[in-house]
Amino acid sequence: MKTEIHPEYAPVVFRDAGAGATFITRSTVKSDKKIEIDGETYPVIDVELSSASHPFYTGKQKIVDTAGRVERFKRRAAKREASEAKATPES
C-alpha cells in the first residue's frame, strides 16, 4: 500500500439535527466543529436525516398513491386480460 496518499480515518460524531441523536463512528470526513462525549473530543458532522429520524426506520412511513397509480394499473391489467381473452378463443 502506498504511503501518504490515503485520507486520515479517525473517529467522528454524526449528529442528527432532527432527532438529537449522536453516532460515533469512523470516517475520513473532516470538520472544524468539535464535541465532547465521555471525556473525549471528536469532530462533529451535522446531518439532517439518520436512522433515528428517517420515516423508514422509525415506522412512520406512509404509502402515498400519487395520481391514482393503483387505479391506472388496475385499468391496464383489465385491458390486457380482455385482449388476451379475445386472442385465445375458447374451445
Main β-sheet, in a few words? 4 strands, mixed
- The helix/strand series, from N terminus to C terminus, equals EEEEHH
Backbone shape: elongated
Q: Whole-number average pLDDT? A: 82
Helix content: 25-40%
SS strand fraction: 25-35%
The SS-based structural class is alpha+beta
As a whole number of angstroms, the C-alpha radius of gyration is: 26 Å
Low-confidence residue ranges: none
Tell me the number of helical segments per DSSP (H or I, 4 or more residues long): 2
* Order of the strands making up the biggest sheet: 2-1-4-3
Number of strands: 4
Briefly say what this structure is.
By secondary structure, the chain is of the alpha+beta class.
Structure characterization notes:
- This protein has two helices and four strands; from the N terminus they run E-E-E-E-H-H.
- It is of the alpha+beta class and about 90 residues long.
- The protein has one domain.
- Strands 2-1-4-3 form a four-stranded mixed beta sheet, with no helix packed on it.
- A hairpin with a 5-residue loop joins strand 1 (about 10-15) and strand 2.
